Amino acid sequence: MLILGIETSCDETAAAIVKDGTQVLSCVISSQRDRFAQSGGVIPEDAARQQVLCMLPVLHACLTEANITPNTLDAIAVTKGPGLLGSLLVGTTTARVLATLWKKPLIGVHHTLGHLSSTWLSDDSRLPIPDSQFPILTLSASGGHTDLWHRTSHTKGTLLGSTRDDAAGEAFDKGASLLGLPYPGGPSIAKAAESGDPHAYNFPLPLHNDPSLDFSFSGLKTSLRYLLRDLDQSQIINRKSQIVHIACSYQHALCAHLIDRILRALHRHPEIHEVHLVGGVSANTYLRTTLQSAITAQYPNIVLRHPSKIIYCTDNAAMIAAAGEFLVREHGEKTYESFETTASLPLAMAVAN
Ligand code: KG4
Ligand code: ZN
Predict the structure, then answer these.
(1) pLDDT along the chain (353 residues), means of 10
(2) Is there a shared CATH topology between the 2-123+310-350 domain and the 136-305 domain?
(3) pLDDT for the residue numbered 38
(4) Taking the domains of the chain in order of start, what are their residue ranges?
(5) Nearest atom, ligand 1, residue 170 CA
(6) Least packed by Cβ within 10 Å: which of 156, 164, 228, 268?
(7) Helical (H) or strand (E) element with 38
């Protein structure tokens, strides 16, 4: 199938065309990250206003880049939620109008199912993504969620654990703000951490004695706040000279918590064949390499995969088009049923049991 994907759940305006759920023919994203770097976060009304302006030029660029005409499309897939309501409405209203004008079936996609589909995306037809073997353990970690999934197919599975407070990406963003580093915090902490020592400062491992597979990041953020306060009060150490080491140790602590939960899940589920890392936080190189070392050491037969390009980790429309394809494959005509655009969409609705 040839599917046009549209994604506008947060501050980005994105459109992509994907063939057979894997081959990306075009992937266009207009991001407002630079505008919101100054405000330290997204201003919802501002984001939606900008998306109204960007939507049609982004769609035009997407069709031109893929070199296709709308009549060759098989369907349109759009993020129906969760996210910022005004932003979501820009995408879903556009998709509804196009589906009517072009007489194409419309697929409403849960944003999280989009992230879960992102590891199959490739923009090089000579390098097809190898087939995956289910069951797959997927960590989906972004600015809005941190979830651990046990998946038996592309669209079926169960949620093993979730965050009890902040999301992992949010912990990067709030940590960066405390450290005086720019938004979004993930890339800026990763950059500062490049020349730091991950063991310079010790942060506690969250939920260490908790038998669940849940996550918690608020304690790490509080530890960081106290550490910075103590350094400021200290006459001996200059805080500025320590930023790279603090950023590096904080990144290490966040990643150690994510990896701890993944290893516990693998221990409990020996039937797992692959581990997938998705969402904005999966762009983190330190997380990728430390998790790979841990898996190689303890579970050498398990394959670790993450999206083939950084743009497929963070919000994009190719993952929405891929999810649309997998929904049609696994649920047939039911996929085309009408849907509501909604800001809060339960996680259970991302994946069927
Ligand atoms: O998936 P995404 O683009 O949007 C949401 O659905 O939230 O994820 C954005 C989040 C932000 O919190 C950002 O700080 C984080 O992903 N992120 C990273 C990195 N790049 C983006 N976190 C850690 N390391 C990175 N390299
Ligand atoms: Zn996302």
Answers:
(1) 96 95 96 69 83 96 97 98 95 98 98 96 81 94 95 96 97 96 94 96 96 97 95 77 95 98 98 98 98 98 96 97 97 94 84 69
(2) yes
(3) 66
(4) 2-123+310-350, 136-305
(5) 12
(6) 268
(7) helix 33-39
278 C-alpha to ligand 1 centroid (Å): 10
Atom of ligand 1 nearest to the CA of 314: 3
Q: Which atom of ligand 1 lies closest to the CA of 315? A: 3
Sequence-ordered alpha helix ranges (H) in 235-343: 239-268, 285-298, 318-331
**CA atoms 304, 305, 309, 315: torsion sign:** negative
- Return the CATH number of 136-305, one of 3.10.410.10, 1.10.287.180, 3.30.420.40, 3.30.70.2740: 3.30.420.40
pTM greater than 0.90 (yes/no): yes
Q: Ligand 1: residues whose CB is within 6 Å?
A: 10, 142-144, 169-170, 172-173, 184-187, 190, 279-281, 283-284, 314-315
- Which neighbouring-strand residues pair with 4? 17, 76
Nearest ligand to the CA atom of 217 = 1
CA-nearest of 263, 351, 319, 267 to 15 is 319
Q: Which pLDDT does position 37 carry in this prediction?
A: 67
pLDDT at position 133, please? Answer: 93
Specify the pLDDT at position 11: 87
> How is residue 199 written in tokens?
């063991």
Rounded to the nearest whole angstrom, what is the distance from the C-alpha of residue 186 to the centroid of ligand 1? 6
200 C-alpha to ligand 2 centroid (Å)? 32
Instruction: Please tell me the CATH superfamily of domain 2-123+310-350, with its number.
Output: ATPase, nucleotide binding domain (3.30.420.40)
